[in-house]
Design a protein that fits this description.
Tetracycline Repressor, domain 2; DNA-binding; elongated; 69% helix; mainly alpha; 10 helices; disordered N terminus; homodimer
DNA sequence: GTCTATATTGGGATAGAC
DNA sequence: GTCTATCCCAATATAGAC
């Protein structure tokens, strides 16, 4: 492009300039499908269709299906981490923040068991790819663990191993989501969130 | 076979007569592989090899790969349920029984996230097959839930929703297993079991 | 009941035009 | 950068001998 600067065309710019970049469109569609059907449950053709493109374009942006999968996972985990961080930074008691976090996550349509999808495909991923995913996953847990650790210092909770507790919390979110799916649309997200939160907070032992 | 009864051959009977029936051998191998690599991570060829047979034999006993998968899952869940029942029937306080259950399950090589494997393949399963798996799964949860319910009646615990708590417990087993895998062989199963059990029993809230 | 050999297809990946 | 057309292999499933 050796052309000099052009004068701005009057009127609304063509749609293309406001469109989501192709790569992001692919990642978004891929993430959604992978979350719902798992790696092997989705073909490149389906992802192409879902993003309104063709297979060849996908391979223009991503070397392989595995690559696309890894980048989609990392992206989702990063976004998830940011949202989580924002909620946990609020100036509230830990209990309220965790409850809000659980409600929010339960409300998200695509909850996802990446762990599940991963389990089946670990053998295909390179060490680097596994590492990338594990790092993104760990960052998410660390965000929660940090909040638990701070609260523990303040004597707000008795939690001894924040990282472990963080994993338990995230897993409770998964179970909660499974329960919401089971009972269907008549589900009361807030109520389910509350009851899982209570198990997390007080355990099942005698009062 | 119209031959009359033969006299028993002297000496040790041929190995074949004490062998596990072919169908069980297939199911065992299939269950192990499916648990480790997921449905799509394993081919019929691999299952055939693992059970010392050929693909054709597998198709002699099972109509399709999906069929084999479903029967393997149900079988594992049933066995798991029986073992669980046995442990929970012991005349001990609930806490001890649950701790023993968690230790035992953490010690099993193939822990498995059937849920994971399932998620990816739900779209392929017939309604009947999904039902069969869900029934077997529910039976397992019910076994744990029953123990929790009884204990609740006795005032041994404060648990309000036994079924929900049962799911949480089983899920803690999964996290525990994931943690053991992460930290590798230097893992202390009993210690990990204890600490997850404590989160389940007392929660993380202030003492 | 178990084998060898093969038909069939879904889907990952690429070539090359535009 | 995006398309059409195609290659190619892995893996399910079957045919038919023994």
């Amino acid at each position: 492009m050796v052309k000099g600067p052009e004068r701005r065309r009057p009127g609304r710019p063509p749609a293309s300039s406001t469109d989501i970049p192709t790569q992001s469109r692919i990642l978004q569609a891929a993430a959604r499908l992978f979350m719902e059907f798992g790696v092997d449950g989705v073909s490149m053709g389906q992802i192409a269709e879902a993003s309104g493109l063709t297979k060849a374009v996908l391979y223009y942006y991503f070397r392989s299906k595995t690559d696309l999968f890894v980048e989609a996972v990392v992206r989702v985990l990063e976004i998830s981490r940011e949202k989580t961080q924002a909620i946990l930074d609020a100036p509230e008691p830990l209990y309220s923040r965790l409850l809000r976090l659980m409600r929010t996550r339960l409300g998200i349509a695509a909850p996802l068991e990446w762990g599940a999808a991963l389990h089946g495909s670990r053998n295909v991923l390179t060490a680097d790819q596994i590492h990338a995913i594990e790092r993104a996953e760990q960052a998410l847990f660390d965000t929660v663990a940090a909040a638990l650790g701070t609260a523990a210092e303040r004597g707000e909770i008795r939690c001894i191993a924040p990282d472990r507790a963080a994993r338990v919390f995230m897993s409770l979110v998964s179970i909660g989501h499974a329960e919401l799916e089971r009972i269907g649309t008549r589900a009361d997200v807030a109520a389910v969130a509350k009851s899982f939160m209570d198990i997390f907070w007080s355990g099942i032992g005698p009062a």
